[in-house]
Amino acid sequence: MLQAIEGVEVALLLAHVDGPFFEIVEATGAGKTVGSCIALAPEVTFPPAGRSTSDLRMPTAFTLMSDKRPSWIGAKQLTGTGLRLVALCSHNPPLLESQLEAAAATMAELDRHGAKSELERLQQDRISALIRSLPVPFVFVDAPATDALINADARSLLKLSSTEVGVEQIASALRHLIQSQGNAALHHQLTADPRAAAIFYAHDHGRTYKVDTQWIDDGLEGRIWTFHDITEERRLEEELRVLASTDHLTGALNRRAFQLAFKSEIARCRRYGVPLSLIMLDLDHFKRVNDTYGHQAGDMILREASNLIRSSLRDSDIFCRFGGEEFALLLPHTGMDEGRVLAERLRYAIAEKPVDVGSAMVPITTSVGIAALLSPTDSIDTMMRRADEALYAAKAGGRNQTVSAP
């Protein structure tokens, strides 16, 4: 740019430092002077248009750069900056003032663009550093889909190498992630509406991630993806669900959970017209066991009986500790006759295996009542009542037997 100013021996770009001192930022034909600091009077740095140097005190540096004392000086400030453009020559060339004006304006504009570019670069560096330091996998793809930012955790989750950071590679990995989770509809939605927001769940190597993707238009414009590892949260939720629905001693469903399952099962049986049976089972003389051997022994017996019962059930059967030493079993797709066969098998299995409570081998027997779904209008309450009546009939009849409800 300085070389383009015609008719001058030396052109300099000066930066104001403090007071009368200026640093030489750039100079034509005098590179070794760049970085030097010189003192200049105001009339040198702000001379009238195209003035003679005869009455000016010129710094020695200017004389050395011109190889002789310059006879003419021109200077222009670069608007909006602390820079000044100075031209030195041995004559007063025509049009030099307009050339200086144009050169100063151009250089000021270039300086502003350079500052803007540098600011953008610094902002981009800060954003990249922030994304790298985020504690969750994170991806950003800009609106034109020409640039992307991704941190190491996201690369690992999306199975991308450290060199695979291009928009196409990231987009392909995200598309594969969505489709691998059976979310083809979500992919179509995001394709149809680039500004759509969505939340879905992804599973990878035993971990569960809540994926949140949305469009942003606040300084940066594009789509962000965040991946929150909720594996521990889901595990705790499952533990709480189990605690809320199961008996802590035996692992069987508790009464409330059993009734909810019963309600769902009986509705299904009514809809499809399939059979359903209910078994109520009570350990005989359990109070006597507690009184004789202690409650710890009683707990051991309840657990052993539960294990024996559970080992004889199908995956579709529903097992509940109804209260104390009483258990309930709901048998989908099972009529009265099949239910009675299972009840008898359970009764014999329990009777044939005394429980070792440490101080003794304690024999256990059970009384069993069984009822079946009789009609589409039959209800949970009526089935429970008939099975309960059959159970008490078994006890009244001498215990250790199965009684079927009429």
The count of β-strands is 18
- Report how far apart the termini are: 108 Å
The helix/strand series, from N terminus to C terminus, equals: EEEHEHEEHEEHHHEEEHHEHHEEHEEEHE
CATH architecture of the largest domain: 2-Layer Sandwich
Alpha-beta content class: alpha+beta
Alpha carbon gyration radius: 45 Å
CATH class descriptor of the largest domain: Alpha Beta
In the sheet with the most strands, the strands line up as 3-2-1-6-5-4
Mean residue pLDDT: 84
Low-confidence stretches: none
Structural write-up:
- It is rod-shaped, with a radius of gyration of 45 Å.
- Strand 9 and strand 10 (207-218) form a beta hairpin.
- Helix content is 42%, strand content 26%.
- By secondary structure, the chain is of the alpha+beta class.
- The strands form 4 sheets. A 6-stranded antiparallel sheet has the order 3-2-1-6-5-4, sandwiched between helices. A 5-stranded antiparallel sheet has the order 8-7-11-10-9, with helices on both faces.
- The termini are far apart.
- The chain has helices spanning 42-45, 60-66, 96-133, 152-157, 167-180, 184-192, 231-245, 255-272, 286-293, 295-311, 336-351, 380-396; strands at 10-18, 21-27, 37-39, 51-52, 72-77, 83-89, 138-142, 148-150, 198-204, 207-218, 220-229, 276-283, 318-323, 326-332, 355-356, 361-362, 366-372, 402-404.
- The protein folds into 3 domains: 2-120, 2-Layer Sandwich (Beta-Lactamase); 136-232, 2-Layer Sandwich (Beta-Lactamase), CATH 3.30.450; 246-404, Reverse transcriptase/Diguanylate cyclase domain (Alpha-Beta Plaits).
- The chain is built from 12 helices and 18 strands.
- The longest helix has 38 residues, at 96-133.
